[in-house]
Amino acid sequence: MADTSRLHRRQLLTGSGAIAAGTLLGVQADPAMAAPGEFEPCITSVTVQIDRPIDLVWKVLTYLPNSSWNPFCPRIESTLTIGDPIRLWVVNHQSSPEPYLITETVYAVNPPRFLTLHGSPAGTGHTLGHLAWGRGSRRDQFLMSREPDRCFYYSTIFVYPAGAGQNLSWVKEGFDIQARALKARAESVK
Known about the structure:
Layout: H1 4-14, H2 21-24, H3 31-34, E1 43-44, E2 48-50, H4 54-62, E3 75-78, E4 85-90, E5 100-110, E6 114-119, E7 136-147, E8 150-160, H5 169-188
Antiparallel strand pairs: 1-8, 2-8, 3-4, 4-5, 5-6, 6-7, 7-8
Helix pairs in contact: 4-5
């Protein structure tokens, strides 16, 4: 399978062959979010094939009152309205089983294709649990389908400004855990 996550990442940052998510939905793009070279290397989850229709998988992903299936974010609160906050209780599986709160902003929603969250840069109250994050982030979750009863899911995050050098391996691990859990949950729904 082709590395579709790399293609989407390039399209979202450069606009080549696609329109950036915020622009597509009429949202004013944050210049810091759109400047290639300003980001840490992208963290990308595994891509999972889910043997269920894309609309059903989207419902599982975005039905926030029941996010307990997700070991990375077992609790999520949001309206999923662009510009509104999204409160995520995140588990760092490398350090603690206890979830801690992250508040980000819903940046783009395009059912059933993608959901984008934007974390604020330093000085605006954005923290990543017990860490002083000191950087902003953009997280995209993608669903793709070419067949009626099968779709693919993966997630990416860009962190800016580049060069801060934090170890984010736990984020990659969490994204992979979430991708596999989404597959298991969606495929268990009848």
